[in-house]
């Protein structure tokens, strides 16, 4: 009986779902070893193991980090972390010490080291480097934060989430391979995007040199906040691609020029996602121009999209309504007047006809208004005329050509670049548009970082720990996007598809799609040797092949060797 009880104690059954895949990728980029090298520590459970545990929890289904102990109570820590760790080791005190150690050694430095290791392990396209920032809201006063402190200042600022009532901090991110972060950190909540761009540009040559890229060997892609005189000077010999803001006179000039010439290069549809009747694809066309900013000449690619910018289209609709309202008010006032001579009416008509707006004309005609004398008409039925006045009859007429022109201008934007048209780094206008559209990859990253369960509901009283948390979130994002990168790379290299939603084949698999395919995976451990409770199905094997993993990678039976 005692032998049976002892044997049963050696059996551990856990529902792992997709977490062994996450753990395998963490091992592949040497996450624990890299962090421990950058953050030397003497904790019973190393900082690297604590951070990997937090990454696993973040990617487990987004449970709050303050429940780490509960999360690991039912997990095989040796399978996921490479060594046996008691779930109580993930208590608030230990996690706080690990986050403090990350901050003390430099949160940005820690993330950069992990990202560099990942870039050495995976084949990433570093030709295009995408940059952007976002605001992250927090709950609390954070009275101890100060703009004079070396720590990030959690304060009020321009909220990209439209929550000006909440304090915030910013996260900046530099990505390659469309959406894989290689540099990133936190910034003050009221920091200017223009100044952040300037700081990034001042060191981008040095940063990219660590990845083996010299100036001119990569293209820096950013939003319109990059366009300032200081930033265009700071870019130096580096290549860039950005969107020229609408408030520059050169923007309206080249757009107007392109529309007048009407010599567009038809690009067609660029979207890769399926379209529906309610969401038709945007059709693009471009026209190449040159412009001068701050005494320097640049390429300008004027892009027209059939899917007009919603904000600008709504603005035009508001302008049309406002124009009608102004003209209607003018007409109402002028048409109440009565004129006793035709000459006066003609003068008023001429005056009214030129009071139209940029969008509407006023069409005016003169009508007689007859006033008859009192009393019965004569026997012949003719009434005696007392007096004749003249009134104006006005109608509002749209200027269809002008409105069409404004709508066409609203569908245009301008890409600004110094990328050459000849040589090794040459890019066509179509290529530049396609690269800029990939900026949405980094924007997708921000939705990942803003999950309310991770940040907004987590009360971190010290800004130092929020900065450390920012680095940990970036590490989790890095691992998540590396999984998607491997899936897409597999699809691109082979004429194959993977089972997607509703078992329909897809050529655009995602990391989240992968996580759903491994739901219910259960692993039994008997005396340290792991086996699947039920065999993997064909779909799961397909995903493992795409991720360059095997069933043994999921079981991690050699973890004792790895942890020694």
In short:
The chain is α+β, with helices and mostly antiparallel strands and 564 residues long. 42% of the residues lie in helices and 20% in strands. It folds into three domains: 2-108 and 464-563, no CATH class; 224-308 and 415-437, no CATH class; 312-405, no CATH class.
Report on the structure:
The protein is an alpha+beta fold and 564 residues long. It has 3 domains: 2-108 and 464-563, no CATH class; 224-308 and 415-437, no CATH class; 312-405, no CATH class. It contains 21 helices and 16 strands. Helix 4 (47-58) crosses helix 7. It is elongated, with a radius of gyration of 33 Å. Mean pLDDT is 86; it is low at 560-564.
Tag the structure with descriptive keywords.
564 residues, 3 domains, three-stranded antiparallel beta sheet, 42% helix, disordered C terminus
Separation, N- and C-terminal Cα atoms: 34 Å
Strand content is 15-25%
Indicate the low-confidence ranges by residue numbers.
560-564
Q: Biggest β-sheet: count, sense, barrel? A: 9 strands, mixed
Rg computed from alpha carbons, rounded to a whole number of angstroms:
33 Å
What is the approximate shape?
Answer: elongated
Helix proportion: 40-55%
Question: What's the topology here?
Answer:
Elements: H1 2-9, E1 11-15, H2 19-28, H3 31-38, H4 47-58, H5 68-73, H6 77-81, H7 92-104, H8 107-121, E2 128-138, E3 167-176, E4 180-187, H9 193-209, E5 219-221, H10 229-234, E6 239-243, H11 249-261, E7 265-269, E8 283-293, E9 296-305, H12 310-334, H13 342-353, E10 360-372, E11 385-398, H14 400-410, E12 412-417, H15 429-437, H16 440-449, H17 463-493, E13 498-499, E14 505-506, H18 511-517, E15 522-526, E16 529-532, H19 538-546, H20 551-555, H21 559-563
Parallel strand pairs: 2-5, 5-6
Antiparallel strand pairs: 1-15, 2-3, 3-4, 6-12, 7-8, 8-9, 9-12, 10-11, 13-14, 15-16
Helix pairs in contact: 3-4, 3-8, 4-7, 4-17, 7-17, 8-17, 12-14
């Amino acid at each position: 009986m005692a032998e049976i009880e002892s044997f049963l104690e050696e059996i551990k059954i856990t529902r792992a779902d997709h977490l062994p895949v996450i753990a395998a990728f963490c091992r592949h980029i040497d996450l624990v070893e890299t962090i421990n090298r950058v953050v030397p520590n003497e904790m019973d459970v190393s900082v690297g193991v604590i951070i990997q545990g937090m990454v696993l929890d973040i990617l487990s289904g987004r449970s709050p980090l303050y429940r780490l102990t509960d999360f690991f109570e039912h997990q095989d820590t040796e399978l996921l972390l490479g060594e046996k760790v008691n779930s109580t080791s993930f208590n608030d005190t230990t996690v706080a010490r690990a986050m403090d150690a990350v901050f003390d050694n430099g949160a940005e430095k820690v993330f950069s080291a992990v990202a560099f290791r990942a870039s050495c392990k995976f084949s990433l396209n570093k030709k295009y480097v995408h940059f952007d920032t976002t605001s992250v809201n927090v709950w609390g006063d954070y009275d101890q934060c100060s703009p004079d402190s070396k720590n990030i200042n959690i304060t009020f600022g321009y909220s990209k989430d439209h929550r000006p009532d909440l304090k915030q901090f910013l996260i900046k991110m530099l990505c390659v391979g469309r959406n894989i972060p290689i540099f990133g950190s936190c910034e003050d909540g009221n920091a200017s995007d223009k100044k952040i761009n300037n700081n990034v540009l001042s060191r981008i040559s040095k940063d990219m040199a660590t990845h083996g890229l010299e100036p001119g060997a990569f293209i820096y892609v950013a939003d319109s906040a990059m366009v300032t005189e200081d930033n265009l000077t700071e870019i130096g010999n580096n290549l860039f691609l950005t969107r020229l803001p609408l408030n520059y006179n050169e923007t309206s000039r080249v757009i107007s020029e392109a529309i007048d010439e009407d010599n567009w290069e038809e690009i067609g549809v660029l979207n890769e996602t399926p379209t529906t009747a309610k969401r038709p694809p945007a059709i693009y066309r471009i026209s190449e121009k040159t412009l001068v900013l701050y005494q320097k000449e640049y390429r300008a690619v004027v892009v027209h999209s059939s899917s007009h910018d919603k904000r600008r289209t709504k603005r035009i609709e508001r302008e049309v309504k406002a124009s009608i309202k102004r003209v209607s008010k003018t007409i109402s006032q002028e048409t109440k007047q009565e004129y006793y001579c035709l000459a006066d009416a003609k003068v008023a008509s001429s005056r009214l006809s030129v009071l139209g707006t940029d969008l509407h004309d006023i069409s005016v005609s003169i009508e007689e208004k007859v006033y008859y004398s009192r009393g019965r008409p004569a026997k012949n039925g003719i009434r005696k005329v007392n007096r004749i006045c003249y009134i104006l009859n006005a109608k509002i007429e749209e200027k269809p050509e002008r409105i069409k022109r404004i709508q066409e201008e609203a569908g245009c934007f301008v890409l600004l670049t110094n990328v050459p048209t000849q040589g090794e780094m040459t890019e066509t206008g179509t290529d530049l548009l396609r690269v800029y559209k990939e900026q949405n990859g980094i924007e997708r990253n921000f939705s990942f970082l803003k999950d309310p369960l991770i940040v907004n509901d987590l009360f971190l009283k010290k800004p130092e720990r929020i900065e450390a948390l920012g680095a940990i979130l970036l590490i989790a994002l890095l691992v998540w996007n590396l999984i998607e990168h491997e899936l897409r790379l597999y699809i691109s290299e082979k004429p194959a598809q993977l089972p997607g939603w509703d078992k329909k084949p897809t050529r655009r698999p995602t990391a989240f799609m992968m996580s759903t395919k491994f739901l219910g995976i259960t692993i039994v451990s008997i005396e340290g040797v792991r086996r699947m409770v039920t065999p993997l199905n064909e779909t799961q094997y397909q995903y493992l092949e795409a991720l360059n993993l095997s069933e043994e990678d999921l079981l991690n039976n050699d973890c004792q060797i790895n942890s020694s």
